[in-house]
Amino acid sequence: xxxxxxxxxxxxxxxxxxxxxxxxxxxxxxxxxxxxxxxxxxxxxxxxxxxxxxxxxxxxxxxxxxxxxxxxxxxxxxxxxxxxxxxxxxxxxxxxxxxxxxxxxxxxxxxxxxxxxxxxxxxxxxxxxxxxxxxxxxxxxxxxxxxxxxxxxxxxxxxxxxxxxxxxxxxxxxxxxxxxxxxxxxxxxxxxxxxxxxxxxxxxxxxxxxxxxxxxxxxxxxxxxxxxxxxxxxxxxxxxxxxxxxxxxxxxxxxxxxxxxxxxxxxxxxxxxxxxxxxxxxxxxxxx
Length: 288
Hints:
The chain has one helix at 11-34; strands at residues 39-41, 46-48, 54-61, 67-74, 76-79, 83-86, 103-106, 109-112, 117-124, 133-143, 146-150, 163-167, 172-180, 185-197, 200-211, 215-223, 226-236, 242-250, 261-268, 279-286. By secondary structure, it is mainly β. The strands form six sheets. A five-stranded mixed β-sheet has the order 2-13-10-4-8, with no helix packed on it. A four-stranded antiparallel β-sheet has the order 1-3-9-7, with no helix packed on it. Strands 17-16-19-20 form a four-stranded antiparallel β-sheet, with no helix packed on it. This is Pili assembly chaperone N-terminal domain-containing protein. Residues 1-38 form the signal peptide. Keywords: Signal.
């Protein structure tokens, strides 16, 4: 957090001002982070596959204020059980093939009015001698820090002038894929377990991937062909052969209809070139 330089003041006054700044900034950050619709995008991910060379992404500012956004790429690695982690600059992972060097985008900084939108174009410039495989980088969209002056209550007649409150609004990322050559992937589900805690059921499973591309789909829990719960957007990226997934579902109000086991189905999206909305993998788990 950057603070404007001020003349020296008493320790108690500086402590109060800094405390107010930190508290206010934390409050704004918490509110923004909890508002999942502060930034909305028209895509969940960008896929360059086959002859596709451009993609248009629309950013929607769903806040009540004009926002300035910066855009860029970063490298993120999927871990077996904790989701995604960002790799620091200069850190290399031989299991990752980055896509950002061949994907350009414009503009790189946008100002969007309250409730407005802005289109960003991503363009693929694929090298002729590129090896077959799946390449991936993560595109980030981040609001700039917004400053607003405020005057804290004076203490002991000591005033150091107005300080600065910094609002930090949460950004978003989405994966950008470049697929080169024939793609094929298969999966199995193992070690599926379910435990009950009151009105919630925690389900864990290992999704095992084999092939040269990522997996992406929804997990459905069903009984006698009836869907009880669905969790969307479960991915297993190419750097992993197995991902341990932990999901929660509510206990159905009408119960399980006498089922001793639930079907756990990992289903692809309709746009998946290989599975076309079909079942990628499935297993059963005992109803707790």
